[in-house]
Amino acid sequence: MLASIKTAFFSDKLSLLLPCGPLAMLVDQLTHRPGWVFMLSLLGIIPLAERLGWATGQLVFYTVPTVGGLLNATFGNATELIISLFALKQGMLRLVQQSLLGSILSNMLLVLGCALFSGGITHHNKEQMFNKSNAGMNVGLLLMAVMALIFPTVLHVTNTELHIGTSILSLSRFCSCIMLVAYCIYIFFLLTNQKQDYASLKEDTPTSSSDNEEFADISKWESIIWLGVLTLFISILSEYLVNATEGASVAMDVPVAFISVILLPIVGNAAEHASAIMFAVKDKLDISLGVAIGSSTQISMFVMPICVVVGWIIGRPMDLDFEPFETATLFMTVLVVAFMLQEGTSNYFKGLMLLFCYMIVAGSFFVHIDPVSIQDDPQ
Known about the structure:
The chain has 379 residues and is an all-alpha fold. It is built from 17 helices and 2 strands. It has helices spanning 2-9, 20-30, 34-60, 65-76, 78-89, 93-122, 132-158, 167-192, 195-203, 210-215, 220-252, 256-268, 270-281, 285-314, 324-341, 348-366, 371-376; strands spanning 128-129, 345-346.
């Protein structure tokens, strides 16, 4: 047990940030400085999210690549889901919308860009290849999610609701249910198409593979236990983070939209970021794309609809009516990534282009004022 704890918490330099979590709780109890609580919570979640990705990465060695990428994306998104549910419970609907949007943008541009760039630099003497059919399927699901966001937004902008104030919410809930069904069918499709891989996996134990001997640090059950423990720790810190967000925006004089769309997702995506780069450097680009693009697909087709459905259950009017600026940003991002992946090949220049696109998005949100906050301003 001691060896497992040492491997989990003291094998990475980011573990030096672990004391920031308890410090955030202490500052919250003793002072009224939301800016400090927010920053300390943010720093405290970073190593936990990275370790969550590490534990999932260990579990990947006991699965086939497609399922491994799915597992990595699923547990990597646990941070975003937990933060969103806490914010939803407190009625911070715009924070939920913007943080989920930011997670999609961060995964598709920042995480994927860093992975393609790192893999391209490491393997500069050849062009990396990946399964473009799997990538195309994910892009198709992302376009479906964009469609589900566009129509409620257009209804709101054009004032063409059949029942003012209720049609957008009803449409959002209807689209969310369809998206959840579509995502479940997608998962079923992935699993049924991996039967042959599972059969071959059973013939070879994980320790018989040279890759697993090199990278697998803990057993399968240890990985599962650490996934549960780390998710619990992230849940506790997420509550402090959400509670301090608005106060931190005022204290740091930074728009809430920038915090929600840029800062929070970077922390939440720490697990995907580390995993995607690691697999790209080792020329396992299919897993990298499964982590980055698969994570974006999961947020848009599962996490976002789940938040709408949970809001429906607890009486929060969470909908898919994102503002035109945000919907346009997502639409352009999906198009850019679709064009980058259409050839089934990768190099460092494609990764660099995605990183430049993310810089443009980050700069845009830094000067963007949320129109909802303007409407709510009593002045």
